[in-house]
UniProtKB/TrEMBL annotation:
Record's keyword annotation contains Nucleotidyltransferase: yes
Phylogenetic placement of the source organism: Bacteria, Pseudomonadati, Pseudomonadota, Gammaproteobacteria, Pseudomonadales
Entry binding sites for Mg(2+): N324, D333
Essential cofactor(s): Mg(2+); Mn(2+)
Binding site for ATP: G136, G138, R139, K158, D170, G171, R236, R243, D333
Protein name: Protein nucleotidyltransferase YdiU
GO molecular function: AMPylase activity; ATP binding; magnesium ion binding; manganese ion binding
InterPro entries: SelO
Family the UniProt entry places it in: Belongs to the SELO family.
Function of the molecule: Nucleotidyltransferase involved in the post-translational modification of proteins. It can catalyze the addition of adenosine monophosphate (AMP) or uridine monophosphate (UMP) to a protein, resulting in modifications known as AMPylation and UMPylation.
Length: 571
């Protein structure tokens, strides 16, 4: 759990003409296109898509696009020149206008269907046709696969207009949600947590859409007004965007024998997933059934590690359905997410999300998604009893592996060689009763305080604390003494610096992001840039100025305010 070093390659891509030859659309030869799809991609009305892995769709460009931000670290990793993000042809392409891209870039993108399971239960109601054939990328359109420095990346526009899966909605994303997703992806990567990455963000200077939102200072749970917001297109990048829900779609069709190619389509999408996400871990020459067993084992390892990392950094995904669970084991879909302030096992910023997706329930939610994954790939093991048995075992042991990851993570946060149940239980109780700011507490602890005074910087001092401050302080002192005795064998310098690579100093709290997207909507990107800077070095001490602004408790007046502490709509 250390901060990623950014592998930078020399700039080789300075223009779209340099990028064009790196494009590789070979997936179109191995995966199936929707037979009813239109080659020109003029396919924007909601309809059922009965088969095929992808539908050709032309993005709908936003009007009068303006540059907002680009992912500088990703640009450098890819060898892209920073100046390209503001060049006319790049802006045009990544704000949705593919009409003039240089060959061999194509002027039609693609969208994919997927199914939905919520907490392990299959859903069809969200599909306008009640069949599952109308659900999928409703506003996400991929425009390119490219092999850059030996690595393959898919680039996907979000908010690029309607697709056959739009369900009657506008296919747009507003600047607010795009800024949130853009910053969070960069922050997550810098935290060392696997994630889709931010490439670029453009806003329209003229096009707006209406969305339900909160009036200023509103304490309502649900939005109480409709506001007009500028539309934006952000581009995210990953080796693939295959979701657990996507495997489920093809598996459901195979199970119900919906068409003659259904089983073959399931096998193809699973092999494609292995190729894009697990190429290093799974030997290509194996038979499909053996590959599937290895895939399940590797995905379990990635998913459990991912969720332990989310909890390490205080992240709640909020809507951890199977369609928001990337089969490559990284964070996907920053919708109603949040980074917590107060430590609260039930923290869930999304008012529609329910407790099953709350902060410390994420391991259980991940298990449900893993069950959905196992059910989806199981048909490929028919006739292979040994592989079926192995898959069952892998599925059955999920909680054990998850628990081991969690204990390892808590031990690392506390600078311990091994997890100590008693110490942790007392800490969790104290953190809830005081309560503490999660980020501040662990960061202060990482400086190895002699007494509890420095830790008090993280105290919110709620009713339980106020009723008996001396009593609680005493328990904190006793806890600290016990913790000190367990860490004594390590050199203090080494312990502290190791803990500071596990416990970030800065986290992307919602009340930092709100003013940044508000300013951005008024055309001022200064705060957004500052946040981009601060939050891409979350483990660094940074300047006194930065510390004063971003290393502090959440102001009391911002608790329980709609849009700042909770939200119902994320798009
Ligand atoms: N404005 C919109 N127009 C069309 N489809 C939409 C819109 N907003 C959301 N959707 C679709 O509704 C579904 C549920 O939305 P959700 O918030 O999980 O996804 P999202 O944030 O749009 O997408 P992703 O999971 O791709 O990050 C998704 O399939 C999404 O494509
Ligand atoms: Mg989603």
């Amino acid at each position: 759990m250390i901060e990623r070093r950014h592998r930078e390659t020399p700039t080789t891509v300075a223009t779209l003409d340099d990028l064009a030859p790196l494009a590789d659309y070979s997936f179109m030869d191995t995966l199936n296109c929707d037979p009813e799809g239109k080659a020109n991609g003029a396919d924007h009305a909601p309809r059922q898509v009965f088969s095929g892995h992808y539908v050709p769709v032309k993005p709908t460009p936003i009007e009068n696009p303006e540059y907002v931000a680009h992912g500088k670290h990703l640009f450098h990793e890819l060898g892209f020149a920073d100046s390209m993000a503001q060049s006319d042809d790049f802006v045009r392409m990544f704000s949705g206008d593919l009409s003039r891209v240089p060959e061999p870039l194509r002027n039609v993108g693609w969208a994919c269907g997927y199914a939905l399971s919520i907490y392990g239960t299959e859903f069809y109601q969200q599909c306008p046709f009640q069949t599952g054939n109308g659900y999928g990328d409703g506003r996400a359109i991929s425009v390119l696969e490219a092999v850059i420095n030996g690595q393959r990346w898919e680039m996907q526009l979000k908010g690029a207009g309607r697709t056959p899966y739009c369900r009657g909605a506008d296919g747009r994303a507003v600047l607010r949600s795009s800024v949130r997703e853009f910053l969070a992806q960069e922050h997550m990567h810098a935290l060392g947590v696997p994630t889709s990455r931010s490439l670029s963000l453009y806003v329209s200077k003229t096009e707006q859409v209406r969305r339900p939102w909160y009036s200023e200072g509103s304490r309502s749970m649900d939005p109480d007004i409709l506001i007009s917001e500028p539309v934006a297109i952000s581009t995210r990048v990953a080796p693939s965007f295959i979701r657990v829900g996507q495997l489920e779609l093809f598996s459901r069709r195979a199970r119900k024998q919906e068409h003659p190619q259904a089983m073959e389509e399931l096998e193809k999408i699973v092999l494609h997933l292995i190729d894009r996400e697990y190429g290093d871990a799974i030997d290509q020459s194996l038979a499909t059934a053996e590959k599937v067993v290895l895939l399940a084992r590797e995905f379990r390892s990635r998913l459990t590690s991912l969720v332990a990392n989310w909890i390490r950094v205080g992240y709640c995904q909020g809507n951890f359905n199977s369609d928001n669970c990337a089969a490559g084991g990284f964070t996907l879909d920053y919708g109603p997410f949040g980074f917590c302030d107060v430590f609260d096992p039930q923290y869930q910023p999304w008012t529609g999300g329910g407790h099953h997706f709350a902060f410390l329930n994420q391991p259980a939610a991940a298990e449900r998604n893993f069950h959905s994954f196992c059910s989806a790939v199981r048909p490929l093991l028919a006739g292979h009893p040994d592989c079926l048995r192995q898959l069952e075992e892998i599925q059955r042991d999920f909680p054990k592996v998850m628990q081991a990851q969690m204990e390892q993570m808590w031990a690392a946060k506390l600078g311990l060689d091994a997890f100590d149940t008693v110490l942790f239980r007392e800490l969790a109780t104290l953190m809830m009763q005081t309560p503490v700011d999660y980020t501040l507490f662990f960061r202060e602890l990482s400086s190895l305080p002699d007494e509890i005074e420095p830790l008090k910087k993280s105290f919110y001092k709620g009713a339980t604390y106020a009723a008996d401050p001396e009593g609680i302080d005493k328990r904190w002192s006793a806890w600290l003494t016990k913790w000190q005795s367990l860490t004594q064998s390590r050199s203090p310098e080494e312990l502290s610096s190791q803990m500071k690579l596990v416990n970030p100093k800065y986290s992307l709290r919602e009340w930092f992001v709100v003013p940044a997207y508000q300013q951005a909507a008024a055309g001022n990107y200064a705060l957004l840039r500052e946040l981009q800077d601060v939050m891409t070095q979350p483990y660094a001490e940074q300047s006194e100025d930065v510390e004063k602004k971003y290393y502090r408790l959440k102001p009391p007046e911002l608790f329980e305010v709609g849009g700042w502490s909770h939200y119902s709509c994320s798009s």
